[in-house]
Design brief:
The structure holds 2 protein chains of 2 kinds. Chain A is α/β, with parallel strands linked by helices. Chain A has 2 domains: about 280 residues, Aspartate Aminotransferase, domain 2, CATH 3.40.640.10; about 140 residues, Aspartate Aminotransferase, domain 1, CATH 3.90.1150.10. Chain A has a 7-stranded mixed sheet, sandwiched between helices. In chain A, strand 2, helix 5 and strand 3 form a beta-alpha-beta unit. In chain A, helix 1 runs antiparallel to helix 3. Chain B has a single domain, classed as NAD(P)-binding Rossmann-like Domain (Rossmann fold, 3-Layer(aba) Sandwich), CATH 3.40.50.720. Chain B is built from 5 helices and 7 strands, in the order αβαββββαβαβα. In chain B, the strands form 2 sheets. In chain B, strands 2-1-5-6-7 form a 5-stranded parallel sheet, with helices on both faces. A two-stranded antiparallel sheet of chain B has the order 3-4. Chain B starts with 6 loop residues before the first helix and ends in a 21-residue tail after the last helix. Classes of the chains: A alpha/beta, B alpha/beta. Chains A and B meet through helix 1, helix 3, strand 1, helix 10 and helix 11 of A and helix 1 and helix 2 of B. The structure holds pyridoxal-5'-phosphate. Pyridoxal-5'-phosphate (PLP) binds next to helix 4 and helix 5 of chain A. The site of pyridoxal-5'-phosphate has 16 residues of chain A, from helix 4 and helix 5.
């Protein structure tokens, strides 16, 4: 006990953080606590748990030991004080925005964003009377121009889906802190192995754990991680600093300090939203995190090899992988993503919409599917799927060309991946000749 | 991080302390000080309230100042404005307390220095309840990072 506590490394924490050998059975894997409720020791304990005077398990819509093991592991890897898991990435975002924002508030958001997040923010804006100020994240002054006295949060992705734009985290954080608002970063595409935005000044992280964290495409899940460093008592966040009517006037930030926002997010927002992560899903995510580092190294290497190969192929007009030497994001990759820029990127076929369709139809190894961050290689052609209702002009406005194809490169042999892409490119070129 | 957040110091205080004098312990159940006092009592610490404006809190006799406490104090846990800390630190030194613990936001480098020079262990801008819950309690059930890494049953 008198020995100095050791600071364990990333790989050790990926495998162990959040989980201790089960004291009762000695089980080495995290037990799946598949239970709705937890039997109280006595009436005094029960009321202490309900009053938040003592940490105790009450009901699995609010907390669960298997889910908590995942939350702690993710928080440890991101360098946060804690985390709250949710049923999906979008549930995590919705809950966080709901906790932070009041009617009349504004949120500054990068335009280059996962389409589902854009749709969610527009929906929340309509229902909650908040205003979204859309920001060109590539413009060095974009954030400063977008923020106002009502801005209560800034939001962007570390590596944007699908454009591959890389966020200058320190710049966005500096603007956020000038106006007394937190910077929220969606770290889904980088994972804490490739980038830890909290170390660069971000205040909160959201994840779609569905992607690289789960890793095998088995599970829909999300989480919020808090740095614990934002001052919620700066006069701009009454819902976190002022007395809460849900807990007899408890002030979350004063009472729980660096844990205040997460306590509120769990015991008020998650409790009331109900979008809870299931214990079995948390178990799968724990397995995913155990192999995160080794998987990400292979994802990064495979994606770069595929991107470099695509750059030399006939019929390909552009490859947007942020780590390529000619990418405008290369300096930001060197700074924020030295171990690699992930494995999701897009490229453009000269043969347009029809070429994209033919390309997909000719593939037999790559899976045509709407997800990313799987061990399997995935491909999608936005103009014929997610964005099919849009005209060519509307497509261009959302940063997608008719011939844009998005890849999520998996862990297969690169030779096999290239072999299949070659067949796709041939089919796309043939369509251009016949069209 | 400040120099008064040494993990080994925190660990030693949480494991070894028995008697905690809480300066500024409020009678209101909603205040952070009451949360901490209630929690420490539940976990077997003897809590001595210090507050000139109260008589009994958490079932314990309240003393107006540290000078008035008739028994040995392991930890002086402070929930007061930072400007009050240097005087409290001097009293803690006089009382022969083992440690001065300054809660979240109670940041007084001067007070910390006085206590340190008087031979006390010092922790600043940390919560005693949280550190107990992190190291010995159940904070890991709430998804917080406890920093505890244990692959065997000997650890932690
Ligand atoms: C960057 C990013 N953020 C958030 C989400 C939403 O996550 P989920 O599908 O888990 O709700 C996705 C899903 O594709 C994503 O790619």
């Amino acid at each position: 006990m008198d020995e100095a506590p050791r600071e364990f490394g990333f790989n050790t924490r990926s495998v162990h953080a959040g989980q201790r050998p089960d004291p009762y059975t000695g089980a080495s894997a995290t037990p799946i606590y598949q239970t709705a409720g937890f039997v109280f020791e006595d009436t005094e304990s029960a009321s202490a748990y309900f009053n938040l005077q003592e940490y105790g398990n009450v009901y699995s819509r609010i907390m669960n030991p298997t889910v908590a093991a995942f939350e702690e592991r993710l928080a440890s890897l991101e360098g946060g004080v804690g985390s709250v898991a949710f049923a999906s990435g979008l549930a995590a975002q919705a809950a966080l925005f709901f906790a932070l924002l009041e009617p009349g508030d504004r949120i500054a958001v990068a335009k280059a964003l996962y389409g589902g997040s854009t749709a969610q923010l527009n929906h929340l804006a309509r229902k909650l009377q908040i205003t979204v100020d859309w920001v060109d994240m590539d413009d060095p002054d974009g954030w400063r121009r977008a923020v106002t006295a009502e801005t209560k949060a800034l939001f962007a992705e570390t590596i944007a889906n699908p454009g591959g734009n890389v966020l200058d985290i320190s710049v966005a954080a500096a603007v956020a802190h000038e106006v007394g608002a937190p910077l929220v970063v969606d770290n889904t595409f980088a994972t804490p192995y490739l980038c830890r935005p909290l170390e660069w000044g971000a205040d909160l992280i959201v994840h779609s754990a569905t992607k690289f964290i789960a890793g095998n495409g088995t599970t829909i899940a999300g989480a919020v991680v808090d740095s614990g460093t934002f001052d919620w008592s700066n006069g701009r966040f009454p819902s976190i600093a002022d007395p809460s009517s849900a807990y007899h006037g408890l002030r979350f930030h004063e009472t729980f300090g660096v844990y205040g926002l997460l306590m509120k997010l769990r015991s008020e927002t998650l409790r009331d939203f109900g979008a809870v992560l299931a214990p079995f899903n948390a178990f799968l995510l724990l397995l995913g995190l155990e192999s995160l580092a080794v998987r990400m190294d292979r994802h990064v290497a495979n994606a770069l090899a595929v991107a470099e190969w695509l750059g030399g192929q006939a019929g390909v007009s552009a490859v947007r992988h942020p780590a390529l030497p000619d990418s405008p994001y290369r300096p930001l990759v060197d700074r924020y993503l030295p171990a690699g820029a992930g494995s999701v990127f897009s490229f453009d076929l000269e043969s347009g919409r029809e070429g994209g369709r033919r390309f997909i139809e000719a593939l037999s190894l790559w899976s045509h599917l709407a997800n990313v961050g799987d061990t399997k290689s995935l491909v999608i052609h936005p103009a014929s799927t997610t964005h099919r209702q849009l005209s060519d002009e509307e497509l261009a406005a959302s940063g997608v060309a008719p011939g844009t194809v998005r890849l999520s490169v998996g862990l297969e042999d690169v030779d096999d991946l290239v072999w299949d892409l070659e067949r796709g490119l041939r089919a796309a070129r043939d369509s251009a000749v016949t069209a | 991080m400040n120099e008064f957040q040494d993990r080994r110091t925190i660990q030693q205080i949480v494991h070894n302390a028995r008697t905690v004098a809480i300066v500024g312990l409020s009678a209101s159940e909603l205040r952070a000080s009451h949360f901490v006092g209630y929690y420490l009592q539940r976990h077997g610490y003897r809590v001595i309230p210090v507050n000139p404006n109260e008589e009994r809190v958490l079932g314990e006799q309240v003393y107006p100042s540290l000078h008035d406490v008739p028994e040995h104090i392991d930890v002086v846990d402070v929930f007061r404005d930072p400007s009050a800390v240097p005087d409290i630190a001097r009293e803690a030194v006089d009382a022969g307390a083992g440690a001065l613990w300054l809660q979240f936001g109670v940041i007084s480098p001067d007070g910390a220095r006085i206590a340190q020079e008087g031979g006390l262990s010092v922790v600043m801008d940390r919560c005693l309840k949280v550190e107990h819950a992190r190291l010995l309690g159940r904070m890991h059930w709430m998804g917080f990072d406890t920093g505890v890494i244990a692959g065997s049953r000997n650890s932690g």
